[in-house]
Amino acid sequence: DAGVIQSPRHEVTEMGQEVTLRCKPISGHDYLFWYRQTMMRGLELLIYFNNNVPIDDSGMPEDRFSAKMPNASFSTLKIQPSEPRDSAVYFCASSSQSLEPPYNEQFFGPGTRLTVL
Amino acid sequence: AQSVTQPDIHITVSEGASLELRCNYSYGATPYLFWYVQSPGQGLQLLLKYFSGDTLVQGIKGFEAEFKRSQSSFNLRKPSVHWSDAAEYFCAVASNTGKLIFGQGTTLQVKP
Regarding beta strands A112-116 and A10-13, do their DSSP bridges make them parallel or antiparallel, or are they unpaired? Predict the structure, then answer.
C-alpha cells in the first residue's frame, strides 16, 4: 500500500493567488481529514469527510478555504485568495471506521508545506 | 468536552536516559488513545494505541504507554532514549464520530 499521497510537497505562491492541495487516501478508507499545522496553533483539524460527504467543517478558518471530495480516492483543499497567514504545513489523513479495533487509527500523508509571500 | 492535555511543551533528555511524556485526557466513555510521532519535515506516524485490555501497551521503536483510568492519563515511556528519538510527540483520543482530538504536542530534544 502506498499510503496517503499528497501533492505538491512544497508550494510557494504569492498573496492573492489560488492554491490547490491534493490528497489521495488509502484505498478502502472511508474517512478523510485535512489538518493544518503551524508553530503558533499546533495541529488543527480543518474538515473531515465520511464516504465523500463533509461531516464537520467547523475548523475551516474562513470562506477563503474550501474542500471537496468528488470520489473516494481524491480530495482537494483550496485557498482562494491566499494570504501570508495561510503559510503552514497541511496534512491529509485517512482512516477506516470500524466497530472493532483498530478504531479511528488515522494514517497521515507527508504533508504539503505552503508558503504564501 | 473531549480534550487532551500534554503538560510539557519541551523536554530535553540525555541519550541513554529514560523518558516519560505525559498525557491527560478528558472523555466520558471508554477512551481510545493514541501516541503519534512526527520527525522533522515528516508526517505523523503511529507509535502505539490503546483500546481495551492490558493497560500497558507496547509500540514501535521501543516505546510503551500505560493507561491509568483513575488518573485519566496515558503516559508514553522509553527506558533508553536514542538520538533518533528527537521529534515531536502527540497524544490523541478518538471520539465516536470519527475524529481524533490531539494534544498540543511535546518536543523532545536528545542531548549527546
Answer: parallel
* Rg, chain B, Cα only: 13
Residues in chain B closer than 8 A to A31 (CB atoms): 98
Find, among B46, B42, B41, B57, the residue nearest to B92 by Cα: B46
| Alpha-carbon distance A109 to nearest alpha carbon in chain B (angstroms) | 6
Dihedrals phi, psi of B68, to nearest 5 degrees: -125, 105
pLDDT in tens, B8-51: 999 999 999 999 999 999 987 778 899 999 998 888 999 999 98
Sequence-ordered alpha helix ranges (H) in chain B: none
For residue B34, give the chain A residue with the closest CA: A105
User: Which residues of chain B neighbour A95 with C-beta distances below 8 Å?
Assistant: 98
User: Tens digits of per-residue pLDDT, A68-108?
Assistant: 999 999 999 999 999 999 999 999 999 887 545 446 678 99
SS3 for A46? strand
- A39 C-beta neighbours (distance < 10 Å), count: 6
